[in-house]
């Protein structure tokens, strides 16, 4: 696999680790949380954030590519290639233009089209509706998504550091409470207590979103 243009080591090992690390930790594509994961990857090359994103999107990308008639191995390879692109180019994601899911699946669709063009497959139909770009979200929906993300980040910034830490580990890194306790070397009850206190503080600021 090619070297990361940033000069980092071969990322094939990172992909393998991501496949092994909590592959089903995230069960819903919360736009604000997904955007924060991409932000963490872009800003500090956060491998834990990448593992969470990989665990959620890689199997969905594979299923999507299979529906586009990619074979099993091709779908697997393309899904990993797309996620590698997300790792390398996370800083190009713009939440004002699209959600994380739309961005990632657009990369997948374009990569699939490029592969089929190179293969010159006679049965490949460029007019297939499944390959057409999705209609952009209405401007008011995009603005709302950006505003929600900003409100969540602002609310988290107001929390005491110990509470903000457990919230980030629980909802951004998708760690179970027991693993948070082990990582921070604190009792499980303390983790739950901090989360309760954090939600009590967050609720007034985000009440209309909860």
Write up what this structure looks like.
The protein is mainly alpha-helical and 210 residues long. The chain is built from 9 helices and no strands. Helix 3 (47-67) packs antiparallel against helix 4 (72-88). Mean pLDDT is 75; it is low at 1-10 and 18-25.
Topology diagram in text:
Elements: H1 12-20, H2 31-44, H3 47-67, H4 72-88, H5 100-119, H6 139-157, H7 161-172, H8 177-184, H9 188-206
Helix pairs in contact: 1-3, 2-3, 2-6, 3-4, 4-5, 7-9, 8-9
Largest sheet: none
Q: Give me the secondary-structure category.
A: mainly alpha
**Mean pLDDT across all residues, rounded?**
75
**What is Rg?**
19 Å
Ranges where pLDDT stays below 50 over 5 or more residues in a row are: 1-10, 18-25
How large a portion of the residues is in β-strands, by DSSP E? under 5%
Shape: elongated
Number of strands: 0
Gap between N and C termini? 43 Å
SSE string: HHHHHHHHH
- The total count of helices amounts to 9
Helical amount: 55-70%
In short:
By secondary structure, this protein is an all-alpha fold.
Keywords:
210 residues, mainly alpha, elongated, disordered N terminus
């Amino acid at each position: 696999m090619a070297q990361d243009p940033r000069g980092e080591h071969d990322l094939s090992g990172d992909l393998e680790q991501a496949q092994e690390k909590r592959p089903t930790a995230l069960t819903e594509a919360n736009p604000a949380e997904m955007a924060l994961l991409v932000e963490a990857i872009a800003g500090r090359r956060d491998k834990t954030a990448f593992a969470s994103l990989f665990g959620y999107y890689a199997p969905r990308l594979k299923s999507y590519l299979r529906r586009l008639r990619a074979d099993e191995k091709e779908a697997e390879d393309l899904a990993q290639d797309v996620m590698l692109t997300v790792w390398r180019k996370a800083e190009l994601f713009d939440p004002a233009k699209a959600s994380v899911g739309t961005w990632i699946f657009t990369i997948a669709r374009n990569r699939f089209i490029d592969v089929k063009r190179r293969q010159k497959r006679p049965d490949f139909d460029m007019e297939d509706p499944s390959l057409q770009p999705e209609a952009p979200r209405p401007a008011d929906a995009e603005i709302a998504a950006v505003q929600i993300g900003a409100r969540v980040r602002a609310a988290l910034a107001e929390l005491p550091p110990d509470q903000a830490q457990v919230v980030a580990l629980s909802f951004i890194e998708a760690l179970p409470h027991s693993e948070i306790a082990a990582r921070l070397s604190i009792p499980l009850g303390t983790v739950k207590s901090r989360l309760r206190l954090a939600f009590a503080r967050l609720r007034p600021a985000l009440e209309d979103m909860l």
